[in-house]
Specification:
Length: about 280
């Protein structure tokens, strides 16, 4: 069974008691949805392709892409009649990453972990039903996954995503689980079972495992990081090919060590170590 198409955002959700939210700027929301429509694997996109991905009418897409191009957030190929993300978006992204003290604190610890274990070690944050990689470290000579900063992986089946879900308040977690269920009803029973096990593992051990649940030959462990002010939840993971990192290795070494790494990051952040 094919997965149900899921729009990037439900604009009708921004209503209160059947009335439009007067503080919600629809034109801005639609412009941002157009920027979100571009994926790392994409070439250039036409207005028609953007309209299909976002559910925004093509005439509206055409006006918004024109405006975004004028502002530098998109660039336009006259020959191909298609768009790609412009330097304005890159500048915003780099500014955001540069302002995250967690990356400055975490990267040396992550690299040491990767060098010692041969695992890929990553930090990510949620965007919709994906986790977006904000930092990624590999050990020298290790067989690693082809993921980099900006890569997206599923929340539901990866160790990073499950760690994120496990750290959420129950109401927020159930809200996301409902969206995950609607995206793929057929896979839902198996997916839900994996998430419930991950939550139980996190509560007992401090980490979650994904052993072949995302990709058949990939095993990983994940640990959430709840920022001290409660403003956000991020997650770390460590993983690699299953023949190099069997589940027993995750439980015996990688899981406990990743918990220690995250506790160290928390301690340094709270003491101002990111400054």
């Amino acid at each position: 069974m094919r997965q149900k198409p899921v729009a990037l955002v439900d604009f009708s959700a921004h209503e209160q008691d059947g009335k439009k939210d007067r503080n919600f700027v629809m034109a801005l929301a639609r412009g941002l949805e157009i920027l979100r429509a571009f994926r790392p694997s994409d070439g250039l996109l036409s207005n028609q392709e953007i309209a299909a991905r976002t559910g925004i009418p093509k005439p509206t897409v055409s006006r918004l892409t024109y405006t975004l191009t004028k502002l530098g957030y998109l660039s336009y190929s006259e020959r191909l009649e298609r768009y790609q993300l412009g330097t304005g978006v890159l500048a915003l992204g780099y500014s955001s990453l540069a302002s995250m003290g967690i990356r400055q604190v975490g990267r040396p610890l992550m690299q040491e972990f990767a060098d010692d274990t041969g695992a890929s070690v990553s930090l990510g944050s949620r965007d919709r039903l994906s986790m977006v990689y904000l930092e990624n470290c590999h050990g020298q000579g290790a067989l690693t996954l082809r993921l980099q900063v900006g890569s997206r992986v599923p929340v539901a089946t990866t160790a990073m995503g499950r760690a994120f879900l496990a750290a959420l308040p129950e109401a927020e977690r159930e809200y996301l689980l409902d969206h995950i269920r609607r995206k793929d009803e057929q896979a839902w029973p198996r997916v839900r079972q994996g998430i419930e096990q991950a939550v139980a593992d996190y509560q007992e051990k401090g980490y979650c495992i994904s052993a072949g649940d995302w990709e058949r030959d990939v095993n990983a462990v994940g640990v959430p990081l709840v920022l001290d002010d409660g403003s956000d939840v991020m997650a770390f993971n460590a993983g690699g090919p299953s023949f190099r990192l069997p589940r027993e290795e995750l439980d015996r070494h990688l899981g406990p060590r990743l918990v220690n790494l995250v506790r160290t990051v928390e301690s340094r952040l709270s003491s101002g170590g990111a400054q």
